[in-house]
Amino acid sequence: MSDAFCAYYDAITLKESIASERRTLTQALKKQKGILRRKAKALQTDLERAEKAEDYRIQGELILANLHTITRGQQQVELQNYYSPELEKILIPLNPEQTPSDNAQAYFKKYTKAKRGRSRIQQLIADLDADQETLQLYTSKLESADTLEALQRLRTEFVANGYLKAPQSRKQKQEAGEGPFRRYTSTNGFQMYVGKNSQSNDLLLRQIAKPSDMWLHTKQIHGSHVIIRNPENRPDIPMPTLLQAAQLAAYYSKAHHASNVPVDYTWARYVVKRKGNVAGYVHYTREKTLYVEPAVPSSKE
Fold first, then answer.
1. What is d(CA 7, CA 256) in angstroms, rounded to the nearest whole number?
2. Angle, vertex CA 269, rays to CA 263 and CA 271, nearest 5
3. How far apart are CA 178 and CA 85, in angstroms?
4. Chain-wide mean pLDDT for the chain?
């Protein structure tokens, strides 16, 4: 067999291997996008239901404003909606076994429950947006990967993110499926993301974090970036959540054995990537500092 024929055969084999690997990775992305589309549709339906929270509040307020016209035993009451520009009348169902005041309180309880549900759904939607951003990034990477080595590196990332299955050791199985960053939920219901490495930190800042999200990092100590998702654009983050996120930043840093670690936090809008191609290096302003003991929440997403 001539050297020319061997070279030709090797080239054909390599081309087929590249095509096969690309098909596998493309199919994995397509499957994952389908999963996210179904999740998005379900979450949108849930959100539309939770949006009724404001209706419950209005119904409760209208009942309170008309207590003198409602009597116990009524199954419904028609009242003018003072919260609407058209001032139309609306029919409000009542529990005839309850007093008018108790009916109003029942609507306020429904409002509180629906509002909490809406907040949770918005967090899940923000979570889904992050997954979609990550998929878009990998779609771009796959399009630009033109060697077998580059495709195999992507396969490794796909396995780590749970897009593909592969034989793994026990330690690898623990990390598999987590995606490019760790995810936790705070006691207040906020999603918290933690970078795994410099590339993951860079992804959090460039692709995932929104201006109204909170960013945390150990002060002048090498460690992971932490993002608190804030899809409702709240003007503040509850202190219990800030403390938990700060503990995560301390835990996933070089100071994780210390007992009192300084952690800076600021809105993501005030964090910018430093010039150059070094992943994970940033400059930030308007920060505040918390001193915490490194810890990980008991529940992990």
1. 53
2. 50
3. 48
4. 87
Number of C-beta neighbours around residue 45 at 10 A? 11
**Chain centre distance of CA 294:** 22
User: What CA–CA distances, in Å, run from 5 to 8, 10, 12, 208?
Assistant: 5, 9, 11, 49
pLDDT of residue 254 exceeding 50, the answer is yes
| pLDDT confidence band for 175 (50 / 70 / 90) | very low
From CA 138, how far away is CA 219, in angstroms rounded? 31
CA 55 to each of CA 49, 67, 77, 208, 237: distance values in angstroms, whole numbers, following the listed order: 11, 18, 15, 33, 26
Are the C-beta atoms of residues 108 and 97 closer than 8 Å to each other? Answer: no
Q: Average the pLDDT over 93-108 and give the result.
A: 95
Which tokens belong to 22?
Answer: 């690309």
Band (171; pLDDT cuts 50, 70, 90): very low
What are the CA-CA distances from residue 122 to residues 40, 51, 98, 185 (Å)? 11, 11, 34, 13
pLDDT of residue 46 exceeding 50: yes
Under a CB-based contact definition with an 8 Å cutoff, are residues 217 and 195 in contact?
no
Half-sphere exposure of 50 (CA within 13 A, CB side): 17
